[in-house]
Every structure is written in C-alpha cells, then in structure tokens.
Design goal:
The protein is of the alpha+beta class and 118 residues long. Helix content is 25%, strand content 18%. The chain has one domain. A hairpin with a 5-residue loop joins strand 3 and strand 4.
Length: 118
C-alpha cells in the first residue's frame, strides 16, 4: 500500500501508534519505536490520529474516526493487515477522545462498540 491506510491519499507520513517520546533511549536505539509501530497516514489523518480522534479496534479490523469539527463518529474497515503490536494499540486507544473510546468498546459501558460491525 502506497497511500494513506485510511483514505489512500498520497503523500503519507509514518505515524507512530505509540508516540516516539514514550520510548527510552535504549528502546529507540534498538528500533522499538519503529518496529510494529508505524502506519502510513496522510497529513489530515495523521493530525486526527495524534489528536485522539482516530482509534484502532483491538482486533485490528476497523478504524473508529471522529470527524473533524464534529462529534459524528464513523467506522472504516481496515483493508490491509496491520502489523502493529497490541500493546501499542492499547496505549494509543487509551489517549483517544471519549466518544472514540466509547465506540472502540474500551469503556466500562462497552455496549457502544463499533468494532464488530460498522
């Protein structure tokens, strides 16, 4: 895949699922900040991802996206296999906006999950 994993647009950035600044210098030296931690996103989706408006379903089947300047939530199936560590997805999802967390099903009242179907 050459474009954004969400919309297909190019060019893309390498977005860290678990932020690089959370790794210590030894982990960075060993490449742990890059291995199974990068997804290709266009600038718009990278910005939303870093702001906690995009979450990744724990089963890696869907993105849950809060639209910009809106409280509307959309669900998008992931078309390509994500080779991202589960612990990094959990870390990222824990910093998502409340409505995204709700739709990811990671809050105590997880009946709002969109991860099983869009």
């Amino acid at each position: 895949m050459n474009g954004c994993i969400i919309c297909g647009t190019t060019p893309t950035d390498g977005a860290h699922v678990k932020p690089k600044e959370t790794f210590d210098s030894e982990e960075i030296r060993r490449g742990r900040d890059r291995v199974q931690n990068i997804i290709s996103l266009c600038q718009n989706h990278h910005r939303l991802f870093d702001r906690g408006k995009i979450g990744i379903c724990p089963n890696k089947s869907r993105f849950i996206i809060q639209k910009p300047d809106s409280s509307e939530i959309e669900c998008q199936e992931i078309q390509h296999q994500l080779n991202i560590r589960d612990e990094y997805i959990s870390y990222r999802n824990s910093s998502c906006e409340y409505k995204v967390k709700f739709r990811l099903g990671i809050l105590p009242q997880d009946y709002g999950s969109m991860c099983d179907s869009c």
